[in-house]
Each structure stands twice: as C-alpha cells, then as structure tokens.
Specification:
Blueprint (H helix, E strand, L loop, with lengths): L8 E3 L9 H7 L1 H19 L8 H21 L3 H28 L8 E6 L5 E7 L1 E3 L7 H15 L7 H62 L6
Antiparallel strand pairs: 1-4, 2-3
Helix pairs in contact: 4-5, 5-6
C-alpha cells in the first residue's frame, strides 16, 4: 500500500471561553480612569522635575515602589465583573499551559516546535494565555509501515493527552488513527506476501523432491526387471 503525504505540521489550538472578555476590558470605566490617572501622574512628574536629581539607585527604587503602588491602586479599582474576569483569565492561562505541556510530554521526538501562546490583556493590565499550539510531525515513514505504525500511535496519544482535547486535537487523533489502520493493512499484506513466498518455496522444494524420488523409484524398478529377464537362444 503506497502512502504518500507531505511532511507537514499539525497544530493543536485551545479555544478561549472568554466571549465577552474583550468588550468588558475595552468598555471598563476603570480602564479609562487608570489611563487618565497615568497621564495625570506623568504630567505631575514632569512639572515637578528638579535640576538636582537623586541618584540612579534611588530613582529605580522610587520607580519600583510607584509601580507597586499603581498596580495595587489599579487592582483596588477593579469592579466585581473585572475581578471575576481576572479570575477566569488566570484559570484559563493555567489550563492552556497544562494543555500544551501534555502534548509535548507525550509527543516526544515527534514534536517539531515548542508551545506558542496567544494572549489577552486583563483589566488588571496583565497578559494571560488564552490559546496555544504545538506542532507535530504527522507524516508516514516512507517504505517502513512498522515505523509508521509506531509513530502514528504516538501522535494519536499526544493529540489525546490533555484532559480536554480540542476539536483540532481530535482531528489530528482521527487522522493518526486512519494512518495507523493503513500501516497495519500494509503490514498484513507484506506478511501475507511473505507467507505466500514461503509456501511457494516449500511446494517447489517438495515437488523437486517428489520428482527426484519418482525417478529413483523408476530406475530401481527398471533395474529389477532387467535382472529378472533372460533371452532364449535359437
């Protein structure tokens, strides 16, 4: 069975459940107020700049402290809906990363790239992974159905490794199962051909032996007849 396929990468994709997350972030009054506060803070900082500045180390410490204060203020200004969205984003981020790591752990040497993620920014200003993908080699091994069989079994296991496989995961698993069946059929055909050849060789050897034995028996009978016969002289 001739199986032809290009060496391609198939992608696993995790679908985000946040259908209204982007709208909530963009329309959040807290987000707008935080932007205004940042601009006002910058204007105030510019207006209060002095010639005699503090040392670089002191400036860094002050900046770090200001960032912590700004982040704390931002979190304290989150609405209940925004807080719930942040919790949902945190949960999805953890699920996405675990999902892709499961693919990589099982896929082994057939994984052709590490996990890549798509992100969504939450109302707290942080970015959370809401989608991911891992590429894996799904091509057959030319001229080696047994190697193809082992490979496709591993690919299928990698596709179904996460606790909740995505629709793309299931598609990859289905394709791998189909190629597994083809490889098994090819292996069966090769085994049948080999058995037929062995049988042919056995029959040929038996036939040759049978003919040889027949000639030997015929020669023996002819020799006995010659010995038991006599001629009359006239």
């Amino acid at each position: 069975m001739d199986i032809q396929a290009p060496r391609i990468n198939s992608y696993y994709t995790y679908q985000s459940a946040l259908e209204q997350g982007s709208d909530l972030i963009s329309s959040s009054p807290g987000a707008e107020s935080r932007t205004q506060d940042t601009q006002a803070g910058k204007a105030l900082s510019d207006s209060e700049e002095q010639v005699d500045s503090v040392s670089l180390t002191q400036e860094d410490e002050a900046a770090g402290q200001e960032d912590k204060t700004s982040q704390s203020d931002a979190e304290s200004r989150l609405t209940q809906d925004e807080k719930r969205l942040v919790e949902e984003l945190q949960k999805i981020d953890a699920e996405v990363r675990a999902h892709e790591m499961a693919h990589i752990a099982v896929g082994g040497q057939y994984i052709t790239s590490g996990a890549t993620f798509s992100y969504q920014q939450g109302p707290d200003g942080k970015k959370y992974a809401v989608g991911g993908e891992v590429s894996i080699d799904t091509s057959p091994e030319p001229g080696d159905p047994e190697a193809t069989l082992q490979k496709m079994q591993r690919v299928r296991a990698a596709a179904l490794a996460p606790a909740q496989p995505s629709s793309q995961d299931l598609k990859v698993a289905s394709n791998a199962a189909s190629m597994t069946a083809k490889a098994m059929a090819e292996i069966t055909q090769l085994q049948a051909d080999e058995q037929a050849k062995q049988m042919e060789r056995a029959v040929s050897a038996y036939t040759q032996q049978y003919v040889s034995d027949a000639y030997t028996k015929t020669d023996s009978i002819t020799s006995q007849k010659t010995q038991n016969s006599f001629h009359l002289a006239i």
